[in-house]
Each structure stands twice: as structure tokens, then as C-alpha cells.
Automatic annotation (TrEMBL), chains A, B:
It comes from the Bacteria. Keywords: DNA-binding, Transcription, Transcription regulation. Residues 16-136 form the Cyclic nucleotide-binding domain. This is Crp/Fnr family transcriptional regulator. It comes from Secundilactobacillus angelensis. SUPFAM superfamilies: cAMP-binding domain-like, Winged helix' DNA-binding domain. The keyword Signal does not apply.
DNA sequence: AAATGAACTTGATTTACGTCAAGTTCATTT
DNA sequence: AAATGAACTTGACGTAAATCAAGTTCATTT
């Protein structure tokens, strides 16, 4: 168990708990469980009973879905402030996805029961959550439209730019395999390899090795059209 | 202006106002504006000031986005119970999209101010809204994954099956142009034409003319793989 | 330090689907 | 009812990117 002030510090990191008064933050801190997950460990696995909302306090987590045919698909990369398990709010079900920590990670856990209680007690939290979900919907809609209308090169460039902008540190070092990146962007590892090589040739990125991409010209990447 | 009991009837149709007590429903009905929109008319247009959440009480509405290059893209087909404008919750902006009624349509309107007030007063509404948004997120995530991994034929078949299941009436008669369908599914009208012809040959649909597709073998459509 | 295998690169080949083009059908207007 | 034009169909062709295949690099294990 945590010291209370540690829990408060964790809660403060989370966007949906921002701009609350002190009493509410204390109340939230009472309900939140903090957990550390080391690089390579799983935050949760498919089949687990899904009874908690998970909020990223720090780190990077890869959410993957294993299809019936045994193939893995990366669904999402969780960064600080993101949350996962909104379906927990309305469904008592098993997790469909697994989540693996790519870096040492700190998360906040809150159970469905506690979260629902919190929502009824604190309208401010509900509104923050609605805002967050609304933004996620907008983002997904934009992404869906982009997926349908743009080339692999554009999508990759966009992804790199977006992900780097969400990152806390300056030196962009994406701990993802090309395989994951490929499946996330709806392409193949071979194509990722070729496109990154091309970006490298064009001077947009300085290097890309195993789990490592270093950006040099973000503005240039933003203009990639093929 | 509406008679109060008409407003209540309208409110009852809307999923996010379900399972509320009578007092709350009355309160909601006070805030809601009802509007009828005839086939072919616009519910809203890009550039309008976006200050209301729109909830579909009855009918079908096509949401389109006109890109800078002048091309139109269908973003979404709104059916009964769907709502649009969740971004209204957190942004005071102009509408980016236009919405055209494909059938005679009945909608509920509620302003941002009123809705935010409602949220703070009635946690039940907030939770319903969170559920609805959570479901929409899940749906969009599933759609994004499908878009990336499936062929046009599969996507089209899936879309027909899903849309028909959401429809109230039995006889499926989709009032969409092939152009819209094409842009929504990320393909071209020509390809839609060819795929529908193939479905027709395979006995999965009985006919498809201008704004008209009639399904015969939904189970068969669900199995389409190419 | 050698060995093993996963991750990655690079090239050759194939294919689904977009684009262009030339009709045809159908609804609306006059 | 004739005329106009948008929606649609069908065929021919081109291309981005998937797939297949054969190496090469690198990290982990022994």
C-alpha cells in the first residue's frame, strides 16, 4: 500500500483528475491503486477479468490483440495520461487485449464500482472523463479518415510526428518493433523497413535500428506525401 | 414550441436519457428542442456555430466532410439513437462537417450550456453519456482495426450487415449513393459497383439500383472473405 | 566467445484496387 | 414526351504495396 501523498502525486499526473479541488483529489487518491510494471511485464492479459480502469501515470504500454488465427495486432500505444478500459464502465467482461510495458511504467488503477461512485459524487470528474472520451472519439474519427485516404508513407510519417509530440523527452526513441508498427499502421514490416530507409535517405530521420528511431526533421516529416 | 408531452416522448426515444426517473426526464424535456428535418434538407452545415448536441430521435442523416480540395467524404451515417457533436462539450468552435437528412428526420437539440448544467445535476445522464461514448470508442477501434486488415469486399459486406441490423424496418433499403458508400469505405464508386455485382451474382443481395440495396442472405454476407 | 534464433533488410514477383475512359440508365426539368 | 445531366456500369491499364524468398544483423543464451 502507498503513502497517501504518493497517491495524490500519482493522481495529479492524470488529465481526467485535473482541475479538481483538494477534497476531491484526496477522495480520488483514496480509491486509486498505484502499480509499477517493469519493462517487458504485462499490465493485463487477454482473459483477465476486466474490472478496473487503467490510467497511465508514466511510461509506455503496447496494447495488442491476438486474433483467433494466432496473429497479433497492436491496437494502441498508451502514453502518459492515456487510459484504457473505458468499456469497463458498461460491461462486466473479460479483457480482449493484452498490454505489455515497453518501458518501466507507473499506472493508476480504479475499480468500476469505485469509479462509478466517484462519477455520481463528483460531476467534475464525469465532465473531465466526457471531455477525454470526446477527444478520443474525434481522434479516432480523424484517424479512420486518414487511414482510408492516405498512403503508408504518409501514415508512418504522421504517426512518428504525433507520437513524438506526445512524448515527454526530447530524444525520440520509440521502443517498438517494426512488426508492431507495421500491424498498427496496417502494413507489413518489409514496407516499414523500406519507408524508413527512404526517410533516412531524405534526411528526415537520422537512424533506425532495432526498437530505435531518431527524428531529425519533424517539419520535413510533416510534409511527406508519399 | 412543443407541447410538453411531445418533448417527453422525444426524450424517451433517446438512449442516453433512458432509465431516468420522471423528474429528471421532465427536466431534460424542458431543455430539449425538437426539430423536424425533411429529406434532402441539412441538419447543420460546415461553418455553423457548433453550440448544440444533436440526438437522432428518428430517421437517417449523412454526415459529410468537405476537404480543402473540394472533395466530399462521408464520415458517418447517423441512425436513430445516435448523437453527434460530442466535441461541442469541450470546444467552442465551428462545425467541420455538414449533415444532410436522407429521410424525413426528427432530432433533439440541446445546447452546451444546458447539457453541462444537466450533467452536473444528474449523474445518471453523465453515466449514460459515458457509456454511449465508451461504446462509440470501442466501435471506432474495431472499425479502425478492420479497415487496416480487410479487403474492400469484406468491409462492404460488414457494413451492409451492421447497418441492416441497426435499421428499424425489415426491408433494407439504404438511401445512399454509391459515391458516398465508396468514400465512407475508403474505396471508389467503380469498385463498389463491381463488388455489389459480385454479391448479386453470388446470391447475397437481390438487387442494387440507385440508392437501393436489398439483402437476401445476411449470413452469407457475414462470411464474405474477398 | 561461440551458437542460436528473432528481427530486420533487400530484391523479385504478384495482385487488389485506383484511375481513366467510354458508354448506359434513370430521374428531373422544360 | 423530349431533353438534359447526374448516377451508374463496364472495360482497359497502371501502380502501391502485399507476399514470397533469401540473405544479414544483432541480442540473448550456453
Amino acid at each position: 500500500m502507498l503513502a497517501h501523498h504518493d497517491a495524490i502525486a500519482c493522481v495529479r499526473l492524470v488529465p481526467i483528475f485535473q482541475q479538481l479541488n483538494h477534497d476531491t483529489i484526496s477522495a480520488v487518491a483514496e480509491l486509486v491503486q498505484e502499480r509499477h510494471v517493469k519493462k517487458g511485464e504485462f499490465v493485463f492479459m487477454a482473459g483477465d477479468h476486466a474490472d478496473s480502469l487503467i490510467i497511465m501515470a508514466h511510461g509506455q504500454v503496447k496494447v495488442i490483440q491476438s486474433s483467433a488465427s494466432g496473429r497479433e495486432q497492436m491496437i494502441r500505444l498508451l502514453q502518459t495520461g492515456d487510459f484504457d478500459g473505458e468499456s469497463v464502465l458498461f460491461e462486466d467482461a473479460e479483457r480482449q487485449t493484452s498490454a505489455e510495458a515497453l518501458t518501466d511504467t507507473q499506472i493508476c488503477l480504479i475499480t468500476r464500482q469505485d469509479f462509478q461512485k466517484l462519477l455520481t459524487q463528483s460531476p467534475a470528474v464525469a465532465i473531465n472523463m466526457l471531455n477525454a472520451l470526446g477527444k478520443r472519439v474525434s481522434q479516432l474519427e480523424a484517424q479512420a479518415a486518414a487511414t482510408l485516404t492516405t498512403s503508408v508513407g504518409e501514415r508512418l510519417a504522421n504517426y512518428l510526428v504525433e507520437t513524438s509530440s506526445e512524448l515527454e523527452t526530447d530524444d525520440f526513441d520509440l521502443p517498438l518493433q517494426k512488426k508492431d508498427l507495421a500491424l498498427y499502421l496496417g502494413t507489413s514490416p518489409e514496407t516499414i523497413s523500406r519507408k524508413l530507409k527512404q526517410f533516412s535517405t531524405d534526411g528526415l530521420i537520422s537512424q533506425h535500428g532495432r526498437n530505435h528511431i531518431k527524428l531529425t526533421d519533424v517539419d520535413g516529416l510533416m510534409m511527406v506525401e508519399n
